[in-house]
Write a structure and sequence with these properties.
This protein has 215 residues and is an alpha/beta fold. The chain has one domain: Aldolase class I (TIM Barrel, Alpha-Beta Barrel), CATH 3.20.20.70. It is 41% helix and 17% strand. It has nine helices and eight strands. Helix 1 (18-35) packs parallel to helix 2, helix 2 (49-62) crosses helix 3 (76-82) and helix 6 runs parallel beside helix 7 (181-187). It is globular, with a radius of gyration of 16 Å.
């Protein structure tokens, strides 16, 4: 099965003033969607609620008619307000089951809920609470250099035998490059989550090469 791909945004990595950074971010969101990235996490944690909601609405408009789904980082209220496809929960945040209940009360069924995890126990908890997927990291150092314990932990988590059937997908995060992504795929990761890998490269070329890892 092809790797699922997850672009996590950080507009502050783009050059220029705030307006230019937003313009570049929305262009990158459109580029990643056109390239076939399955999910995009709007992560702009520094924004106040109103500004975050306005940016989320622009992102949703950018994705209109496309298959790519938008998840809002840590803000279920913003996700509901902009009509996003779901949320991404930081570690030690609300549980996926609590967030599903909030969406249900708002008349929204089957939201996508990703959860950040850093251990096997956190993955197990996310799975028990009905998360759509877990993002485990960091697998590598920020430089992309080897971090054996991270990769080994990813392997153990992806091959856990006590999980429900079928097990919740686990995606790899942290220092992932084209050079080391194959190690994540070989360890059993169902997907690749990254900021720089997508944001600092041509998305179409990156997606093509990542898809080839599981062809």
């Amino acid at each position: 099965m092809a790797l699922q791909l997850y672009y996590i945004t950080d507009r502050r990595q783009f050059p220029g003033d705030g307006q230019e950074q937003e313009r570049r971010l929305l262009a990158k969101i459109a580029e990643c969607a056109a390239a076939g990235v399955e999910y995009i996490q709007l992560r702009e944690k520094d924004l106040e609620t109103r500004a975050f909601e306005q940016l989320a609405l622009k992102a949703m408009a950018t994705l209109s008619g496309l298959r790519t789904q938008l998840l809002i980082n840590g803000r279920t209220d913003v996700a509901l307000a902009c009509g996003a496809h779901g949320v991404h929960l930081p570690a030690n945040d609300l549980s996926a089951s609590e967030v599903r209940a909030i969406f249900a009360r708002a008349g929204k069924s089957n939201p996508v809920i990703g959860v950040s995890t850093h251990s096997a126990a956190e993955v197990a908890s996310a799975e028990a609470h009905g998360a759509s997927f877990a993002v485990f990291g960091p697998v590598f150092e920020k430089s992309g250099s080897s971090k054996p314990e991270g990769l080994e932990q990813l392997r153990r988590i992806c091959h856990r035998t006590e999980a429900a059937q079928p097990p919740m997908p686990v995606w790899a995060l942290g220092g992932i490059t084209l050079e080391n992504a194959q190690q994540c795929a070989s360890a059993g990761a169902a997907g690749i989550a990254a900021i720089r890998l997508f944001q600092q490269n041509d998305a179409h070329a990156i997606v093509k090469k990542l898809r080839a890892l599981r062809d």
